[in-house]
Amino acid sequence: MDGAGRLTRSPRSLGPQADLKAAAIGAVVLLREYLARRRNRRPAKPPVIDREPPNRFILMVERYLPRRVGLAATLAILLGSAGFGIVKGGHVDEFITTLSDTRNALANAAGFRITTVAINGRKQLSQDEVLAVGGVNGRSSLLFLDAATVRDRLKANPWIADATILKLYPGRLQIDIVERTAFALWQQDGRLSVIASDGAVLEPYVSRRFLNLPLVVGKGADTRARDFLALLDRYPQVRSVTKAAIFVGERRWNLRLKDGLDIRLPENDVGNALAALSKLDKEDHLFSRDIVAVDMRLPDRLSVQLSEEAGKARDELFKDKKSKKKAGDA
User: What's the angle, vertex CA 295, arms to CA 292 and CA 299, rounded to 5?
Assistant: First the structure.
């Protein structure tokens, strides 16, 4: 026993138990500190906000709509707003042109630039005019060139009756066109135009190269000229002295000769009237007479209107004949 009344133990016998106990206590302390640190590192739970539960429609939307639909809707709204601004500001054509130029530039960079253009069948239009009408320019690429659109644009030109577009990759374009032929000059309401045989107006008359074309005048003369002029060609005696064919009331034709003589043709049997007119000139030199009009509208007669001078001479002649007759009777 020690001085305090306790039993003394030898240090040898207490050593292992004390070490184990101390180790256990240390392990417990370390574990407690480790758990405390882990607890402190956990994120704090967000405060719970009491709110009313959503209605049934919102629950259905949240349940059945695909994910990121809100992002898609936002993008759609932005694109719609941009489109509305382009349309409202009148920039649609500029926007389309910009997109077209961009994709053509990419295609040209990839090797689809139009390097060769062959145009066949043109006579009145130049190569630059054909390309401009078709919408083909230096920025066009063969890859994105719409052959149908080019053909429609070409056919919209009055000089071009038909067109064929061939794209020969990688960079060759062939255009075959069928041009209309200038057939006659058509005058209506003081305006003079060059027309084709089908009556299509080709262009306003501004060039002297069309000076020798036949002249037709009046409403409806443009579409009826081909048949009438073909009939008139059968009588070269009359055609050679005709200056203009005038369509009257959209029913019948008058001829204006180069010396100013008017020939009023009937509505029907025009061929027979022209044959009789040609015969009269051959036999009686009708076109050389001092007359201003020949009326052939009645089938059983021909009326001739003398000029003012010829009428006065005729009246004087009748007066002389009457006076001589009276003197003879006396």
Answer: 165
